[in-house]
Specification:
five-stranded parallel β-sheet; 18% strand; DUF488 domain-containing protein; 146 residues; DUF488
Length: 146
Protein backbone atom coordinates (compact mmCIF):
# COMPACT_ATOMS: atom_id res chain seq x y z
CA UNK A 1 0.00 0.00 0.00
CA UNK A 2 1.30 3.42 -1.01
CA UNK A 3 0.39 6.14 1.48
CA UNK A 4 0.09 9.56 -0.15
CA UNK A 5 -0.69 12.68 1.86
CA UNK A 6 -1.88 16.15 0.85
CA UNK A 7 -1.66 19.42 2.76
CA UNK A 8 -2.35 23.11 2.27
CA UNK A 9 -0.50 25.70 4.29
CA UNK A 10 -3.05 28.52 4.55
CA UNK A 11 -4.98 28.92 7.82
CA UNK A 12 -2.31 26.90 9.61
CA UNK A 13 0.37 28.29 11.87
CA UNK A 14 3.82 26.80 11.24
CA UNK A 15 3.59 24.72 14.43
CA UNK A 16 0.39 22.98 13.25
CA UNK A 17 1.66 22.55 9.70
CA UNK A 18 4.95 20.90 10.65
CA UNK A 19 3.37 18.83 13.43
CA UNK A 20 0.86 17.37 10.95
CA UNK A 21 3.66 16.42 8.57
CA UNK A 22 5.96 15.02 11.23
CA UNK A 23 3.26 13.08 13.12
CA UNK A 24 2.05 11.51 9.86
CA UNK A 25 5.47 10.15 8.97
CA UNK A 26 5.82 12.21 5.79
CA UNK A 27 9.24 11.70 4.19
CA UNK A 28 9.03 14.29 1.41
CA UNK A 29 6.98 17.37 0.58
CA UNK A 30 6.09 17.60 -3.11
CA UNK A 31 5.28 21.23 -3.83
CA UNK A 32 2.64 21.39 -6.57
CA UNK A 33 2.41 25.20 -6.81
CA UNK A 34 3.31 27.18 -9.91
CA UNK A 35 4.94 29.85 -7.78
CA UNK A 36 6.69 28.61 -4.66
CA UNK A 37 8.03 32.00 -3.61
CA UNK A 38 4.64 33.25 -2.44
CA UNK A 39 4.46 35.29 0.72
CA UNK A 40 0.99 34.00 1.65
CA UNK A 41 2.67 32.27 4.54
CA UNK A 42 6.27 33.07 5.38
CA UNK A 43 7.26 29.52 6.28
CA UNK A 44 5.86 28.16 2.97
CA UNK A 45 8.23 30.08 0.68
CA UNK A 46 10.15 27.40 -1.27
CA UNK A 47 13.66 27.81 0.12
CA UNK A 48 12.40 28.46 3.66
CA UNK A 49 10.02 25.50 3.50
CA UNK A 50 12.84 23.25 2.35
CA UNK A 51 14.98 24.36 5.31
CA UNK A 52 12.23 24.12 7.94
CA UNK A 53 11.01 20.71 6.75
CA UNK A 54 14.53 19.30 6.88
CA UNK A 55 15.36 20.83 10.26
CA UNK A 56 12.05 20.18 12.02
CA UNK A 57 11.05 16.80 10.64
CA UNK A 58 13.95 15.47 8.55
CA UNK A 59 11.57 15.81 5.58
CA UNK A 60 12.95 16.39 2.10
CA UNK A 61 11.42 18.83 -0.39
CA UNK A 62 10.77 18.79 -4.13
CA UNK A 63 9.09 21.44 -6.28
CA UNK A 64 7.39 19.63 -9.18
CA UNK A 65 6.04 22.03 -11.80
CA UNK A 66 4.59 19.12 -13.81
CA UNK A 67 1.99 18.81 -11.05
CA UNK A 68 1.08 22.52 -11.07
CA UNK A 69 -1.78 24.01 -13.06
CA UNK A 70 -0.83 26.60 -15.67
CA UNK A 71 -0.97 30.28 -14.74
CA UNK A 72 -3.69 30.77 -17.34
CA UNK A 73 -5.85 27.95 -15.98
CA UNK A 74 -5.52 29.18 -12.42
CA UNK A 75 -6.29 32.74 -13.47
CA UNK A 76 -9.44 31.69 -15.35
CA UNK A 77 -10.70 29.88 -12.26
CA UNK A 78 -9.80 32.64 -9.81
CA UNK A 79 -11.52 35.27 -11.95
CA UNK A 80 -14.60 33.01 -12.18
CA UNK A 81 -14.30 32.58 -15.94
CA UNK A 82 -14.22 28.83 -15.27
CA UNK A 83 -16.44 26.91 -12.87
CA UNK A 84 -14.83 24.41 -10.50
CA UNK A 85 -16.09 21.55 -12.69
CA UNK A 86 -14.52 23.14 -15.78
CA UNK A 87 -11.27 23.76 -13.90
CA UNK A 88 -11.23 20.14 -12.72
CA UNK A 89 -11.67 18.85 -16.29
CA UNK A 90 -8.99 21.18 -17.66
CA UNK A 91 -6.49 20.32 -14.92
CA UNK A 92 -6.98 16.57 -15.39
CA UNK A 93 -6.56 17.03 -19.16
CA UNK A 94 -3.34 18.93 -18.45
CA UNK A 95 -2.02 15.97 -16.43
CA UNK A 96 -2.78 13.70 -19.40
CA UNK A 97 -1.12 16.09 -21.85
CA UNK A 98 1.96 16.13 -19.61
CA UNK A 99 1.85 12.30 -19.51
CA UNK A 100 2.04 12.26 -15.72
CA UNK A 101 0.71 8.70 -15.53
CA UNK A 102 3.61 7.52 -17.69
CA UNK A 103 6.31 9.78 -16.21
CA UNK A 104 5.75 9.22 -12.52
CA UNK A 105 6.80 6.14 -10.59
CA UNK A 106 3.90 6.08 -8.16
CA UNK A 107 5.69 3.69 -5.79
CA UNK A 108 8.23 6.44 -5.13
CA UNK A 109 5.44 8.63 -3.70
CA UNK A 110 5.02 6.45 -0.60
CA UNK A 111 4.92 8.74 2.46
CA UNK A 112 5.12 11.84 0.27
CA UNK A 113 2.84 14.83 0.75
CA UNK A 114 1.41 16.92 -2.09
CA UNK A 115 1.49 20.58 -1.06
CA UNK A 116 -0.37 23.64 -2.24
CA UNK A 117 -1.86 26.70 -0.60
CA UNK A 118 -5.57 25.80 -0.29
CA UNK A 119 -6.64 25.08 3.28
CA UNK A 120 -9.01 22.22 2.43
CA UNK A 121 -8.68 19.71 -0.41
CA UNK A 122 -12.23 19.86 -1.78
CA UNK A 123 -11.55 22.57 -4.38
CA UNK A 124 -7.84 22.11 -4.79
CA UNK A 125 -5.65 20.62 -7.51
CA UNK A 126 -3.65 18.58 -4.96
CA UNK A 127 -6.76 16.44 -4.33
CA UNK A 128 -7.35 16.08 -8.08
CA UNK A 129 -3.73 15.03 -8.55
CA UNK A 130 -3.88 12.50 -5.70
CA UNK A 131 -7.08 10.99 -7.12
CA UNK A 132 -5.56 10.95 -10.62
CA UNK A 133 -2.56 9.03 -9.28
CA UNK A 134 -4.91 6.62 -7.50
CA UNK A 135 -6.44 5.81 -10.89
CA UNK A 136 -2.95 4.91 -12.11
CA UNK A 137 -2.38 2.66 -9.09
CA UNK A 138 -5.40 1.68 -7.03
CA UNK A 139 -3.24 0.63 -4.07
CA UNK A 140 -2.82 4.26 -2.98
CA UNK A 141 -4.25 5.40 0.32
CA UNK A 142 -4.82 9.19 0.31
CA UNK A 143 -4.82 11.14 3.57
CA UNK A 144 -5.59 14.86 3.57
CA UNK A 145 -3.83 16.64 6.44
CA UNK A 146 -6.06 19.49 7.59
Amino acid sequence: MIHLFTIGFTKKPAETFFKLLKDSGVKQIVDTRINNVSQLSGFAKGSDLQFFAREIGNISYDHNLDFAPTKELLSLYRTKKLTWNDYETEYLNLLDIRKIAQKINVENLHQHCLLCSEHKPDKCHRRLLAEYLKQVRNDIKITHLI
